[in-house]
Write a structure and sequence with these properties.
This protein is an alpha+beta fold. The chain has nine helices and 17 strands. The chain has three domains: 4-14 and 108-166, no CATH class; 21-105, no CATH class; 174-196 and 260-380, no CATH class. The protein has helices at residues 17-35, 52-63, 71-92, 199-218, 223-259, 269-278, 282-304, 347-360, 365-380, and strands at residues 4-12, 38-40, 46-48, 107-109, 114-117, 120-126, 130-135, 148-154, 158-166, 174-180, 184-189, 192-197, 261-266, 309-312, 328-330, 335-338, 344-346. The protein binds zinc ion (ZN).
């Protein structure tokens, strides 16, 4: 198996402004050219008629006053073709809002344009004359245990580097399962229930939700400014959420790697579109957003550490009794009670237990009995604040 783990990092950099601007112009010209090659069928469907000769002709024309490495022209053409094809797909499904535009000043640098040796990344700007050298050893947070470097992305002030590592899946000593909700993640790690608080995330979402609503009200007249503000806030929200999740998943991945245990997650692929399309419930959307981001980040971080990640079908995972497989019904608040054996447990704990049993094929009788006996004790005094941090 030649599975690869991938990680992307960004470092601050002073980019060659002339290249960034020239590449930006080339992409804009290319977009105009490629866009003029879209033909429409009688039924109104668009498709791209951009032949090899067209491409060669465009390439030659763009190269005429191009002093930088030729590969940049190829990568600009490729990225624009990709953009237009993506737009056509959306348009034909009636989903494209406006024509595609080149808005970002980013340069894609494919691996034929750089070399890496002794910690130094050497990027060709002009053939055999001008290079951009970046000393990666200066950045301590970059991974050292990689096998190769994939494509680079250069923006005006940063360089995004993709590191690749060959994965050798090790046999885990055990499993950890994660059930992700709107305000918390419930995990079963090494037979222990651990809760991670997601309320700060929820708070971030609420704050930006309010900001967006306010702009919507104001921007009926000045829609361009309003749109820009909306984009700005959405970007900030995304960044803050991402930042939070990065910290959390890095911490979890580190703990799991010390324990040498793999991860079992819910397969959300089937549920997401079905549930989301019907539900206009914002909380539900947010909770799926959290789940997908958490899973994505945890998976690549774990793979990098050679630990396996499994997905199981989460259907009925919070309604099936982990002790006797009977049906569980709600029992006040977040609690569930088994109709058959009477087990009472928090529904997130039920889900985490089931995911782990279904994913690992091992029953969890001992930790379960411990859990249920603790639950019973708590139930005697249900007026006391119910909480489960770590048993
Ligand atoms: Zn039961």
């Amino acid at each position: 198996m030649k599975e690869k783990a991938v990680k992307a990092y960004s470092i601050p950099i002073e980019s060659p402004k002339d290249l960034i601007d020239a590449y930006f112009e080339v992409k804009k010209k290319t977009l105009k050219e490629v866009f003029s090659h879209i033909v429409y069928s009688q039924r109104g469907k668009a498709h791209l008629k951009f032949k090899k000769e067209d491409r060669r002709e465009l390439r030659d024309r763009l190269l005429k006053d191009w002093t930088y490495s030729k590969h940049y022209i190829d990568s600009a053409i490729n990225s624009v073709i990709g953009l237009v094809k993506g737009w056509i797909k959306l348009r034909n499904r009636g989903k494209a809002k406006s024509k595609p535009e080149i808005t970002k000043k980013t340069v894609y640098i494919k691996n034929t344009l750089f070399s890496y040796k002794n910690g130094i990344l050497k990027i060709s700007i002009e053939p055999r004359r001008r290079y951009l050298e970046v000393n990666l050893t200066k950045y301590e947070y970059l991974p050292k245990d990689f096998n190769s470097i994939g494509g680079l992305l250069l923006t005006e002030n940063k360089l995004i580097i993709t590191f690749k590592k060959n994965v050798k899946n090790i046999e885990p000593k055990g499993w950890a399962s994660f059930d992700i909700n709107l305000t918390n993640i419930t995990a079963l790690i090494n037979g222990k229930i651990v809760r991670y608080d997601l309320k700060p995330l929820y708070h971030i979402h609420r704050v930006y939700e309010i900001k967006r609503k306010r702009i919507q009200k104001l921007s009926k007249h000045k829609s361009a400014t309003g749109r820009r503000l909306m984009q700005k806030y959405s970007r900030r929200e995304r960044n803050r959420v991402r930042d939070f999740m990065h910290k959390l998943t890095t911490k979890i991945a580190k703990e799991l790697s010390e324990l040498k245990i793999g991860v079992i997650l819910e397969n959300l692929r089937n549920i997401k579109s079905r549930v989301l399309r019907k539900s206009r419930d914002l909380n539900r959307k947010l909770s799926k957003w959290n789940a997908r981001m958490f899973q994505f980040m945890l998976e690549y971080k774990l793979k990098w550490l050679d630990l396996p990640v499994k997905y199981v079908n989460p259907r009925n995972s919070s309604k099936t009794c982990p002790l006797c497989s009977g049906r569980m019904a709600t029992y006040g608040g977040r609690l569930m009670k088994c109709k058959k054996c009477g087990l009472v447990l928090d529904r997130d704990v039920v889900a985490a237990l089931n995911l782990q049993m279904w994913g690992s094929g091992v029953t969890l009788k001992a930790p379960l009995e411990l859990l249920s006996s603790m639950m019973e004790k708590r139930l005697i005094d249900r007026s006391s604040q119910y909480s489960m941090k770590a048993y």
